[in-house]
Every structure is written in structure tokens, then in C-alpha cells.
Design brief:
Elements lengths: L1 E4 L3 H7 L5 E6 L5 H9 L3 E9 L3 H4 L1 H4 L2 E7 L15 H14 L4 E9 L29 H7 L6 H23 L4 E7 L4 E5 L6 E4 L7 H4 E9 L19 H10 L4
Parallel strand pairs: 1-5, 1-6, 3-4, 3-5
Antiparallel strand pairs: 2-9, 6-9, 7-8
Helix pairs in contact: 5-7
Length: about 260
């Protein structure tokens, strides 16, 4: 399963040219942590390797209490791009290729960051102003840009955001398409949740932005489900976890989450 972070169904169906059987499904969460709780919490997933560019799992791994055969944190030092403050999609794909070779009899759950911001495909600056800032020392201009738009302190039109958001989808679709050439059997391309860009919320009809937890708007929970079949399905076996998550500097985790707008 190839998981795109914050990818709406309508975005995917408009821009994807990946061959397969596409349908719309409803995610069980409107944000990443809700999606993880609903799908992996307290699960024994000894037949699965989680390749993730998103630090949310690592930060919440104790409460999620999921047992993967292995977890590969792409967002650690050598997988992180300091220029953009994120993990580039081609980096995630390369880690996934290595995992597929290393674990030929395991399912892969590959979690890309894009099209979640920062927007790597555009020259925008409003989505990158909070990068590398201590959450307790932020000025108003360094608060998450979704919230700043919501409260009116950042005057950005929906069209500008849409252009940047869509431009962030194209490179991950290209990387996914390339990766699929190296994967055999059955692969699902989907998303953990969507994203709001000035749509009206319910029951209070205000313009909402981002992907707040607990808000189950159709644009937040309607996600793509693309089934791609190529060759014979591999034989899957479950084995105890290869190793536990090693020690990762807590400051590194906080900095990554900050750059991605989770803090």
C-alpha cells in the first residue's frame, strides 16, 4: 500500500495518470493520527514493513501499540531534505525499493508526505515560515499557515493555495508511478485523509482550511483507492519484529513535526 498524505480524491482523479482501477473510499480519519489509530492500533502486523516519511507514527508509537515486522523512518537524518523541510517523494520511493528487496515476503506500507505541505513544487514562502522554529518562541507570522488563513491574519486566496497544493501532488505521483514499475503483485495507492481549501464546514458554515482532526467533511475523508495489479502476487509470511525502534533524538522528532506543521 502506497499512502499519500493529505490527498483528496478529486485531486488524485484529476491529476493521476497511473493505470489501475480507481474508486472513492471513505477514510476512517480526517488527520494522520486518527487514520493510524483506526487502522493499526493494537495490531500485530508481523507480515508488514512500514516505510514512513511521516514522524507522527514514531511520536505516538507507544499509544498506538502496533507491532510491525520492521519500521523504516525515512525522515531521519539521511532521508530528510533541509532545503525544503520535508522528505522528497523520490527519497521515499528509494527507501521503499530497498525495503522491497530486503523483505521480499513482507507487505509494504509506504507513507509519503506529499501532497501535504511544505510545497516542494512551488516557490511559495507562506507555507515554510514556521520551519526550524521552537514552537514556544514563534511569532504570529510563524504559526501554521492553515490556521493563519483561517483566522484571517494571512491573506492568501484559495486559488494560490490550490496551485501550490496541486503542484505538490505531481512529483509524488511521478515517484509513485516509477516505484510501481519495481513492485510486482497487487498494490493499492490511497491516502490517509484529504485537505480543505476554503470549503464550508458543518454544522457551522465557516470556511475551513487544512485537515483538523474530528472534522469529517467529505473532502477530508473521501480518498482515492487505486488498485494496480502487475504479475504474480508474492508469498507473504509473518515473522516477529526484526527489531524495536532504536533511540532517536527527541529534538529531531520535534523539529521534523514542526517543519511539517504538526506542532
Amino acid at each position: 500500500m502506497l499512502l499519500l498524505d493529505a490527498c483528496r480524491f478529486d485531486m488524485f482523479s484529476k491529476f493521476s495518470n497511473i493505470s489501475g482501477e480507481l474508486s472513492k473510499v471513505q477514510s476512517s480519519g480526517s488527520c494522520t493520527i486518527e487514520f493510524l489509530h483506526a487502522n493499526i492500533a493494537n495490531q500485530e502486523l508481523h507480515d508488514t514493513v512500514y516505510v514512513t516519511a511521516n514522524p507522527v507514527y514514531h511520536r505516538n508509537r507507544d499509544e498506538l501499540n502496533a507491532e510491525f515486522h520492521d519500521v523504516i523512518n525515512v525522515w531521519q537524518e539521511d532521508g530528510w531534505d533541509d532545503e525544503y523541510g520535508t522528505v522528497l517523494p523520490e527519497t521515499t520511493s528509494e527507501y521503499a525499493r530497498k525495503a522491497a528487496k530486503k523483505y521480499p515476503n513482507k507487505r509494504l506500507l509506504v507513507h509519503y508526505i506529499q501532497p501535504h505541505y511544505p510545497f516542494i513544487g512551488s516557490d511559495t514562502s507562506f507555507d515554510k515560515q514556521q520551519l526550524h522554529t521552537d514552537p514556544d518562541q514563534r511569532t504570529e507570522d510563524q504559526i501554521r499557515f492553515w490556521f493563519r488563513i483561517f483566522i484571517g491574519s494571512l491573506d492568501i486566496s484559495p486559488n494560490v493555495v490550490w496551485e501550490a497544493y496541486n503542484s505538490n501532488l505531481r512529483p509524488v505521483l511521478s515517484s509513485v508511478k516509477d516505484l510501481l514499475d519495481d513492485l510486482s503483485g497487487r498494490t493499492i495507492v490511497t491516502a490517509d485523509h484529504g485537505n480543505l481549501v476554503a470549503e464550508r464546514a458543518f454544522p457551522i458554515p465557516i470556511h475551513e482550511w487544512g485537515h483538523p482532526c474530528g472534522l469529517y467533511h467529505s473532502k477530508l475523508v473521501n480518498v482515492p483507492w487505486l488498485v494496480v495489479t502487475d504479475g504474480f502476487r508474492k508469498s507473504i509470511s509473518a515473522e516477529p519484529p526484526k527489531n524495536k525502534d532504536g533511540e532517536i533524538n527527541s529534538a529531531t522528532v520535534e523539529n521534523r513535526l514542526n517543519d511539517l506543521g504538526y506542532l
